[in-house]
């Protein structure tokens, strides 16, 4: 007997290669042990629902999708950067603010002041907003500590969030995000600290599953990033790259050389970079929130990525500096409006391809038997409406590991 069965729904499975996103009209979903035990047309159920499961639920004719996966966020931080945004409206550029010691470094200052509890408390409302809008798996990067102690604290706060709320957190170490002021005249010393101390320690304490780097003129060079990524590989961690966001750094090629799970942003990626991603099977993670809020006018090479068969994911990039975005469905709609993804691409981008960007395609991102039982019900008629509404929240209910969620934190 299954734990539960859900009836009165239309499902899109997002199974790779399936026509119309794997649409199943009048479908049924069976859940057992936190996994999907059955999915198909209701008439093909092997018996009357009440004989198959302990609980029978109705979704009232709604649309069911896999639980959403936000595969790129910096959601744990102190303070905010509303003032930077106001400065940009007066014509001060993002890179100019960063060069003057503001930008990421001003968030670092406010983040270092917070305890682990303070960091969790600051992030919880943002994470709750993401969850209410359908996110069931959430990547969280460090990167606003920039010293061993604070980076590890950020990762512990990320882990706590996954214990307090019904969501799976995937922690990523992004200590190569900006050069901290203490190392202003010793770049190599900071890279040494990351490769010799911080990365091995984060791996040993199992606080991160991946290492990310910001390869950019205002951050780190290709050579510096390569040293960090080598240390990540040596520690057995996966690799991700903030690539070519503000200029063509050849960072997509760097990501490909290291067999990165994903290369993210990609506004300035060249045709050679796209080809390298395709060969490596690296996912392109597109971040329309950051593009919009920084006033960027050059979109990532979506047509070339599509042509080359590079899987495209979309994420919120939730962060204080460039993308204070707490809705993945909004990011999905923006990817269509700003980057001209198709409706099918925009939905796959926050489910199947986002799972792949986290190395989790085997356990989530589609509605298939044996996948984790993470799914959402939407007040939508057709999947193309999913990435059509600009804000609002059509998520009627969501199920994480087989359980219908409420969004209040449990005590810990
Ligand atoms: O993804 N690109 C680097 N990191 C963030 C921005 C961080 C910040 O400005 O605080 C991003 O856009
Ligand atoms: Fe980012």
Q: State mean pLDDT (0 to 100 scale).
A: 97
Strand numbers in spatial order across the main sheet: 5-6-7-8-9-10-11-12
Strand content: 15-25%
Radius of gyration: 21 Å
> Low-confidence parts lasting 5 or more residues at pLDDT below 50?
none
- What is the number of helices? 15
Query: Could you give a short account of the major beta sheet?
Result: 8 strands, parallel
Descriptive account of the structure:
- By secondary structure, the chain is of the alpha/beta class.
- 35% of the residues lie in helices and 23% in strands.
- The chain is built from 15 helices and 15 strands.
- It has helices at residues 49-52, 82-89, 94-99, 104-112, 116-132, 148-164, 187-204, 222-234, 251-257, 271-280, 288-293, 302-308, 328-339, 343-348, 352-357; strands spanning 2-12, 23-32, 35-41, 53-66, 68-70, 135-141, 168-176, 210-215, 238-243, 262-265, 283-286, 312-314, 375-378, 395-400, 403-404.
- An eight-stranded parallel beta sheet has the order 5-6-7-8-9-10-11-12. A seven-stranded mixed beta sheet has the order 3-2-1-4-13-14-15.
- α6 (148-164) runs parallel beside α7 (187-204) and α9 (251-257) packs parallel to α10.
- The protein is globular.
- The mean pLDDT is 97.
- Residues 74, 103-104, 107, 214, 242, 245, 290, 317, 319-323 line the site of N-(iminomethyl)-L-glutamic acid.
């Amino acid at each position: 007997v299954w734990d539960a069965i859900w009836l009165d729904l239309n499902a899109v499975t997002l199974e790779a290669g399936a026509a119309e996103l794997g649409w199943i009209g009048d479908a049924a979903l069976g859940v057992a042990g936190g996994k999907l035990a059955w999915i198909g047309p209701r008439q093909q159920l092997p018996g009357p629902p009440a004989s198959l499961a302990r609980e029978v639920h109705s979704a009232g004719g709604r649309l069911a999708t896999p639980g959403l996966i936000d595969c790129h966020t910096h959601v744990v931080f102190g303070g905010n950067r509303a003032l930077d945004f106001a400065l940009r409206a007066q014509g001060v550029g993002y890179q100019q603010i960063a060069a003057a010691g503001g930008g990421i470094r001003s968030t670092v200052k406010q983040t270092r002041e917070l305890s682990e509890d303070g960091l969790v408390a600051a992030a919880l409302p943002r994470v709750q907003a993401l969850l209410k809008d359908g996110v069931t798996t959430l990547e969280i990067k460090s990167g606003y500590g920039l010293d061993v102690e604070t980076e590890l604290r950020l990762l512990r706060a990320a882990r706590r969030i996954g214990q307090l709320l019904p969501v799976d957190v995937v922690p990523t170490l992004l200590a190569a995000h900006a050069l901290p002021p203490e190392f202003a005249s010793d770049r190599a010393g900071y890279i040494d600290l990351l490769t010799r101390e911080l990365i091995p320690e984060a791996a040993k304490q199992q606080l991160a599953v991946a290492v990310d780097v910001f390869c950019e003129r205002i951050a780190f060079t290709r050579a510096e990033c390569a040293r960090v990524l080598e240390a990540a590989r040596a520690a057995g961690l996966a690799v991700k790259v903030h690539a070519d966001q503000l200029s063509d750094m050849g960072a997509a090629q760097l990501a490909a050389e290291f067999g990165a799970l994903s290369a993210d942003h990609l506004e300035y990626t060249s045709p050679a970079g796209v080809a390298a991603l395709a060969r490596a099977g690296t996912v392109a993670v597109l971040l329309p929130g950051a593009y919009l809020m920084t006033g960027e006018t050059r979109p990532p090479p979506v047509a070339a990525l599509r042509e080359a068969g590079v899987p495209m994911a979309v994420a919120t990039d939730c962060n204080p500096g460039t993308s204070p975005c707490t809705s993945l469905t909004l990011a999905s709609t923006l990817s269509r409006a700003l980057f001209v993804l198709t409706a099918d691409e925009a939905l796959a981008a926050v489910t199947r391809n986002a799972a792949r960007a986290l190395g989790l395609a085997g356990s989530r991102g589609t509605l298939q038997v044996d996948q984790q039982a993470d799914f959402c019900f939407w007040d939508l008629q057709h999947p193309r409406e999913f990435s059509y509404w600009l804000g609002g929240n059509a998520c009627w209910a969501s199920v994480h590991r087989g359980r219908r969620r409420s969004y209040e934190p449990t005590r810990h």
